[in-house]
């Protein structure tokens, strides 16, 4: 297992399909979120992404993929390079074949969306069809084939394919060296990646710096320096942060309680867990859960 696989397994990231189909007229997509990353895959036709990130609206055509992280500036997708509709009154939902444009859109809710882990990724990620690479291009093609087929279970299949879509996007960002710092950039360092894989795979093990040095084949000084360079913290500091990332995800599960999550994390008391959680993420577990519940959007297929 590698560091990225272990990270994905630990966070159990799952995509939720918001819309897959055609659009006509003066269409608008507004999926700004402080808690979720949103992805938009153009299946047919074209559109434009409006954001302060680009001097002029970004044209999107068939096979292009754009993702917006929670720390992205306010953005919209629309039918026009010059017009962003004020509402949806000029938009008409259509079947895929009838739509002037067609999209597959969804979100992945993040446990701690403003943490350094996710802020290390670019706020907006654009992958052109021509630059997707073999694996990502084939996955995009398979998603679009499922959408146009209307076969039994296609919506569920698309969601599970989109789970992999995000991981391939992260791989794309790593391989294209779009990140110079943060944990995903650190994974490019083979020795550091060995220590990260150990922590990601067994987060609740009582790792020592000496054990992590052995995994990485580095001295204490070298390992500490590399962590400071990439993630601006110590190995044990990162481990504590990683544990709370997982805890934050567990707190979002239906029926979860602070006491139960504290027990799963190996804490003897909920109080000790709460202190560690607040120290890492800036709010108590109870306050975090309330905020997540209030911020979670209700996703409805506009059809």
Verbal overview:
The chain has 303 residues and is of the alpha+beta class. It has two domains: 3-175, Sandwich (Jelly Rolls); 189-295, Homeodomain-like (Arc Repressor Mutant, subunit A). Helix content is 45%, strand content 18%. It contains twelve helices and ten strands. It has helices at residues 3-11, 116-119, 133-149, 154-175, 183-186, 190-201, 209-216, 220-231, 235-251, 258-264, 270-281, 285-295, and strands at 15-25, 28-29, 36-44, 46-50, 58-61, 65-68, 76-78, 91-94, 101-109, 124-127. The strands form two sheets. It has a six-stranded antiparallel sheet, with helices on one face. α6 crosses α7 (209-216), α9 (235-251) packs across α11 and α10 crosses α11 (270-281). The protein is globular and about 60 Å long.
